[in-house]
Amino acid sequence: MSSSSHLDKVKKLRELTGVGFKDCNVAIKETGGDLDKSVEYLRIKGISKANKKMERVANDGLICIYEKNDEASIIEINCETDFVAKNLEFLSFSENISQLNFEKKGNFDHLKKTKMNDGNTVEDNLVRLISKIGEKVTIRRSYFLSNESCKNFSYIHTSIKNNVGKLGVILSLKAKNFNEEVKGIGHKLAMHIAASNPLSIDIEQLDKKILEKEKMIISEELKNSGKESKIVEKIAIGKLEKFKQENTLLNQIWIMDPKKKVKEVIADLGKENSIIIKDFVRYKVGE
After folding, report:
1. How confident is the model over 198-223, as pLDDT tens digits?
2. 172, 279 contact by CB (below 8 A)
3. Domains: count for the chain
4. How far apart, in whole angstroms, are the C-alpha atoms of residue 65 and residue 153?
């Protein structure tokens, strides 16, 4: 790490933590220039100011979506309070980051090093924003959907402004024919995902760790029921199957018609208009 780069890191750490130059200098050296590890290092050393901003909980913020040429990206940017989330400077910063995230196709590492309109990197301006508004601000997660053999749809629930809110969805569909009916289903599917929060498209894509955890919870619930082991086993299988159905998009009850499942709504489109759900992402602030 060059001397100028080292000094820049020390300056950032001072702005983030309020700790003196000497201690920040040592922390940067000891952690190889990693800011997060430097904050942790200062805490371990007992320098209490180190948790001044960066160790507070940032569970508010914004979800931003950016769309262009039928590609879409989504990003969550966190702050500590709703008051700051509504701050015009935070909002402007978030929208700029959303566009850059789209350009970098959701790549976090590239995003942090990208220069913004003022010539400073995203990482530099993030530190400046934290110092100015007095709250912890973090870029939590992001995702990108290409337009390869598909069409993308999006939805922001109770938007603050266009493509900015507290809950957002981007969805990718493949179809033989993107007529108005299919496009309408695409928009409704994005709304359904926002409301129903599926964990995956279908059962085979469910995370095995999630299923194992749910199975353990169900078993613990039934352990002291007093029922015979065979009956308990049948109940557990039924409960786990219900969990799978309720948490996979194709098997969920369609929010527009409780008499149908999502897969039935798709089947009703017919072969000529048939669609395949390729991918989706649902972000809710702090969730």
Report:
1. 999 999 999 999 998 888 888 777 77
2. yes
3. 2
4. 11
